Amino acid sequence: MHVRPRRVALAALVAASSLLLAACDGGSDSASGPAAGSGSGGKKDKGAPTVPASITADQAQKALVAVTDLPAGWQLEPNTGLDKSQGGGDEQIVNGSRTECAPIVAVLNTGRLEEDHKANAQVVFTKKGDQTTVAQDVSGYERAAAEKAMAGLRTAVEKCASFDAKDSGKKATVKVKKAAGQQQKYGDESVSYAVTVVTGDMQMDFDLGTVRSHGAITTVLNNYSDHGDRGKAAFAKALTKAAEKLTAAAAKTA
């Protein structure tokens, strides 16, 4: 069986998000002072600024792993992303009738769990002289939406051991399994899992780790070939660093 490395979409990464920080005005509580808004010298107390509902585009960008976070021998692929819909969508995986498996398909097609993101950034690295790819997506949501997305992913990992799909229009089988052994927890919650896509005599293998902190979610993907170290060391380092950066980026959000 031959391994077919994932062909990531070449696209300018567009991440747009706007958050307004508002201040609440409060009147003076002093009985002897001037009434709020009356006379000269009257001053209104300003309350604490509203907590942002999600991370911004700039914060998503700062949560990306850098090539210096990986072992030697890896290089950045500029202007490259995981979202295959940006390249026309001809190579997208189409889910069969099992709706509970949709989060797995979404991650493989776009790098993220949900389309209704408030901010997004992606980065792709390849190993020199190899066909192994390590990539990362960072997406910002409101916290309730992020929690719901993670719950859907957990269900998919548990219930979608194998399901039918189409890859680039051809019949495919997608196999999913939770990472073996005791998994380290990252952020507020995390899921580590492996996915195999078999299309005819071609096979694509992925290690994935998805982490949520507040309303921000990052997924790190390792699409490895059948030789070398299979990207395991780089994937482990990238996942740890991605979780650390995501937690910092989301710390001051709701």
TrEMBL record:
Signal sequence residues: 1-22
Keywords attached to this entry: Signal
Span list, region Disordered: 30-51, 76-95
The protein's name: Sensor domain-containing protein
Organism of derivation: Streptomyces klenkii
